Amino acid sequence: xxxxxxxxxxxxxxxxxxxxxxxxxxxxxxxxxxxxxxxxxxxxxxxxxxxxxxxxxxxxxxxxxxxxxxxxxxxxxxxxxxxxxxxxxxxxxxxxxxxxxxxxxxxxxxxxxxxxxxxxxxxxxxxxxxxxxxxxxxxxxxxxxxxxxxxxx
Length: 153
Description:
153 residues
């Protein structure tokens, strides 16, 4: 029993160390990237890729932030943009739908690859699913999906 508990503790400690080694540099990188002027260019280039899926330019900041760094960061930016009135209700719903399926694609892929998952399958499946769902949602809805006052609540 004691050996089993020791093995579990060592395994968990190793996993926690791997998670820390992956997450900490990503967090530092996010903060650094956000301070760079070229990040705006990256956002503008993303507009060309995501426009056919119903995303307008103001939604790109929260979309790309959530895609690369996780739903917590993406949602934080999304909430800030929605409260400031920068995003219309339809964009809030489309970004939320996309990020609900395909958030933290870099972070999650690295974490699961460390424990043996196939990075190619994870990225492809999540990205394609998010794009198809968002495309269908965007095509089915032309106007606002909810009233702007309801979107921020």
